[in-house]
């Protein structure tokens, strides 16, 4: 497990860390997502899109802004679940992770949306579409 804590977090607050948990101040998120089975995130749109692109289901723990909406949509589409920040602890995260990893329907949904994302053409297709729209006048 990779745990990203940021630069300002006092890692000593975590106490004894099991050997299979790797704590970092920063990571190359795309490199990690290429190998991840599950992503626990605040629910930022970019992070969620990156996870889904790499076929990784998500547990969203919304903090602010659009994150509650993103989390609700993830749950609605069966791509993961939401854990409210006030309810977060080892048990709630563990239950959410176990549920997602055991749910074949979530895996199928994540695989399907990942394939759709990959087929869409990405940023290059968006530029082509915008050029087409803007040049129709």
From TrEMBL:
Pfam families: EryCIII-like_C
Xref: Gene3D superfamilies: Glycogen Phosphorylase B
InterPro entries according to UniProt: EryCIII-like_C, UDP-glycosyltransferase
Membrane-spanning residues: none
Domain Erythromycin biosynthesis protein CIII-like C-terminal: 11-130
Keyword check for Glycosyltransferase: yes
The keyword Transferase is assigned to this record: yes
Keywords: Glycosyltransferase, Transferase
Highest taxon listed in the record's lineage: Bacteria
Protein name: Erythromycin biosynthesis protein CIII-like C-terminal domain-containing protein
Lineage start: Bacteria, Bacillati, Actinomycetota, Actinomycetes, Bifidobacteriales
């Amino acid at each position: 497990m990779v745990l990203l804590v940021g630069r300002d977090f006092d890692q000593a607050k975590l106490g004894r860390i099991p050997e299979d948990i790797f704590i970092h101040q920063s990571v190359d998120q795309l490199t990690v997502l290429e190998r991840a089975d599950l992503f626990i995130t605040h629910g930022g749109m970019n992070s969620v899109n990156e996870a889904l692109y790499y076929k990784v289901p998500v547990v969203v723990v919304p903090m602010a802004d659009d994150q509650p909406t993103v989390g609700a949509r993830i749950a609605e589409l069966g791509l993961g679940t939401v854990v409210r920040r006030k309810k977060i602890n080892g048990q709630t995260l563990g239950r959410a992770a176990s549920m997602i990893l055991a749910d074949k329907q979530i895996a199928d949904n994540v695989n399907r949306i990942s394939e759709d994302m990959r087929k869409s053409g990405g940023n290059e297709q968006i530029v082509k579409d915008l050029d087409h729209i803007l040049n129709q006048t």
